Amino acid sequence: MTEELPVVELSDLHAAHLQTEEMILNMGPQHPSTHGVLRLVLRLSGETVVECKPVMGYLHRGIEKIFENRTYLQGIRYTDQFDYLAAMLNEHAYVGAVEQLMGLEAPRRGEYIRVIVDELSRCTSHLVYLGTALLDLGAFTPIVYCFRDREEILDMFEELCGSRMNFNFHRVGGVLFDLPRGFIAKLADFLKRFQGNIDEYEELITGNEIFLARTVGVGIIPPDMGLAYGISGPNIRASGINFDIRTYKPYSAYPEIGVVPQMAEGGDAFARYEVRLAEMRESIRVIQRAIDGLPGGPVRARMPHVLRPPKGETYFSIESSKGELGMHLVSDGSIRPYRMKVRAPSFVNLQILPELLRDHKLGDVVAIFGSIDVVLGEVDR
After folding, report:
1. Strands (E), the chain
2. Residue 17 within a domain
3. The model's pTM
């Protein structure tokens, strides 16, 4: 007679305090899913993230220090290197701070043109987010279509100011050039096609079962946690918090043109996708209203060749594609800033990443990181 083997219940195994071996995994700084030179030090238990430590600084160039050795006008072109996917917005924040420091106002036509290029820049940034976030999840085709639309906007920027990336277009007191002949007609034609393309993106992506499985309920930012970390932009509005600098503290021509903040309630990766898709639609509406109400007159106020703001300091912020982008300028009365501090939304938004990744699977890391949409040029500076 053979002896029967003992039967061990699964619950008894859990009670046995079995040890698991943790592993340290370096993701980056050359990993394609980090969209720049970011290193994530992940401590894993099996495939579950126990801890995440972002390691920054690989793209640090000391730009804030460089500003102290450049005149106020020379500083404009350095702002293009913060969030290089939405450089027009960086320039607007900087020149707005200088104008506020000097008590200046740009002509209304110049402000309307600023709104137009800012919203186009917002669309280019969101298109890169949409294409790369889906590429990280294994879908190659969307990035091709997103970059098709982005190329059209960059072509218009090139026609407007001669550059496709580092624009150097905003000026203290307005903008560098007026809209070229035929630009408005070309822009209106693009907006009509772009609206249809966004409808197509939504039809193909929003109901996709694989996309829903990878994003719904993944990387949830509770409203109280988002506020505690200082999160802004689409990331906080996707958690149901109505905070948009364009309406909270209106600037430029936004009070006249009007803008409706786009929001969602889920707080997860899918909600952040929904907000950015809706923001592109709202940008189209804002641009169309700006075109319809575009006033005549000059695009730039008469300014001295050398700017010498009075002693003092100021803080000016705008709603960039990533959130609240602020510039804190300190003047000692000379032709160069005494200090220029950037409140970069990507840097602030990145701080919540360890909270979002904890207890998620390794496969969710790229989905969550892509959904908060940070740019390393803005993080490191």
Report:
1. 22-27, 39-45, 48-55, 170-171, 174-175, 312-319, 324-331, 339-343
2. no
3. 0.90
